[in-house]
């Protein structure tokens, strides 16, 4: 009897310890995820403000200045306003598809942030297939666009959704082939392979054609000008977003900027050397110590450098939006299929030839 | 927790990021004023009454783009293993 009760007590205390460990494991996973989501949200707010300020500068006017000092809280004010707007569901439209469309667009883009290295050893999910996961999941976004176009009971939304999906999938393949050319060289770690010669070790110089193709394809994926036709303000009255109001429209808006941030981060990691300082250490020997990137100070510097390079590319894409005119739909699809696809295949061939010749 | 250990955080991230639109819809459902009217429910067609059905015949070329995309995507999927083991395999017949 006594042995029986002590055994039961042992099993009870063991079970409590194990369940505590399980809970601790779950909390240990939730903290980095919530930190990343917070970081992404702040990033999107900054991008919205940056876009307003840069476009104001290009058009020689003053940007937002009333919401918060220098207009910093403008994005937050816009989002809160959209939360309070009425949610109109079109009659005879497919309500389920109408609601799920923007959600899928946001979720599929948000998921890709899990595989970006912000600094040395600072990735949410350190998978072997890392960048291939981005390519795979970003192909889900056109499904959301098709759902939104079909679910609103509107001819123009339907056509807009079809065009947006066609544009999105057309530029996926040059994107994939450029990433393929990069992963040919650096089998282990793409950012590490760019760190040896500092500034001159960037993949930008090793694959200039790939960089240009990647730039154009990612601008087309984000549906930014000059590839803006699916959400053209004049031609199609915002295309697949016509019937949306309130927070669903807000979700499309956020998804667009999330996509832009994601593409900029990937350009940084793939072509601009990621979180390395990129100053050739031959000139400044002391900086070689910092290039090791260990400890909290090194990690913070890594994050800072990644964000600086990202915002450089963001500035370029925002300035491009307010400079170039819009492409027509058939010109757009021609560019994707007949121009960029053969060039990216040629880039892959060129890279493999160089790799063979140097071996 | 799940079968493949490295993907644990990924699944947790998926659950949390699908909670974000749901949270947005819930908050919006609480805070939003609802005033129905016949004008609000009709579709937008530049201010006139919508003519005809919304689900019209669309051009076949959109379907063909999707088809060609699938073909090239499968080709890319086949190219990936060759790229990753290029230093071992090299070109064929070399």
Automatic annotation (TrEMBL), chain A:
<keyword id="KW-0618">Plastoquinone</keyword>
<dbReference type="GO" id="GO:0048038">
    <property type="term" value="F:quinone binding"/>
</dbReference>
<dbReference type="GO" id="GO:0009060">
    <property type="term" value="P:aerobic respiration"/>
</dbReference>
<feature type="transmembrane region" description="Helical">
    <location>
        <begin position="131"/>
        <end position="150"/>
    </location>
</feature>
<feature type="transmembrane region" description="Helical">
    <location>
        <begin position="339"/>
        <end position="357"/>
    </location>
</feature>
<feature type="transmembrane region" description="Helical">
    <location>
        <begin position="97"/>
        <end position="119"/>
    </location>
</feature>
<dbReference type="GO" id="GO:0003954">
    <property type="term" value="F:NADH dehydrogenase activity"/>
</dbReference>
<keyword id="KW-0934">Plastid</keyword>
<dbReference type="InterPro" id="IPR018086">
    <property type="entry name" value="NADH_UbQ_OxRdtase_su1_CS"/>
</dbReference>
<keyword id="KW-0874">Quinone</keyword>
<comment type="subunit">
    <text>NDH is composed of at least 16 different subunits, 5 of which are encoded in the nucleus.</text>
</comment>
<dbReference type="InterPro" id="IPR001694">
    <property type="entry name" value="NADH_UbQ_OxRdtase_su1/FPO"/>
</dbReference>
<keyword id="KW-0150">Chloroplast</keyword>
<comment type="function">
    <text>NDH shuttles electrons from NAD(P)H:plastoquinone, via FMN and iron-sulfur (Fe-S) centers, to quinones in the photosynthetic chain and possibly in a chloroplast respiratory chain. The immediate electron acceptor for the enzyme in this species is believed to be plastoquinone. Couples the redox reaction to proton translocation, and thus conserves the redox energy in a proton gradient.</text>
</comment>
<feature type="transmembrane region" description="Helical">
    <location>
        <begin position="26"/>
        <end position="50"/>
    </location>
</feature>
<keyword id="KW-0520">NAD</keyword>
<dbReference type="GO" id="GO:0009535">
    <property type="term" value="C:chloroplast thylakoid membrane"/>
</dbReference>
<keyword id="KW-0812">Transmembrane</keyword>
<dbReference type="GO" id="GO:0005886">
    <property type="term" value="C:plasma membrane"/>
</dbReference>
<keyword id="KW-0793">Thylakoid</keyword>
<keyword id="KW-1133">Transmembrane helix</keyword>
<dbReference type="GO" id="GO:0016655">
    <property type="term" value="F:oxidoreductase activity, acting on NAD(P)H, quinone or similar compound as acceptor"/>
</dbReference>
<protein>
    <recommendedName>
        <fullName>NAD(P)H-quinone oxidoreductase subunit 1, chloroplastic</fullName>
        <ecNumber>7.1.1.-</ecNumber>
    </recommendedName>
</protein>
<feature type="transmembrane region" description="Helical">
    <location>
        <begin position="251"/>
        <end position="275"/>
    </location>
</feature>
<dbReference type="Pfam" id="PF00146">
    <property type="entry name" value="NADHdh"/>
</dbReference>
<keyword id="KW-1278">Translocase</keyword>
<comment type="similarity">
    <text>Belongs to the complex I subunit 1 family.</text>
</comment>
<feature type="transmembrane region" description="Helical">
    <location>
        <begin position="295"/>
        <end position="318"/>
    </location>
</feature>
<keyword id="KW-0472">Membrane</keyword>
<dbReference type="GO" id="GO:0019684">
    <property type="term" value="P:photosynthesis, light reaction"/>
</dbReference>
<keyword id="KW-0521">NADP</keyword>
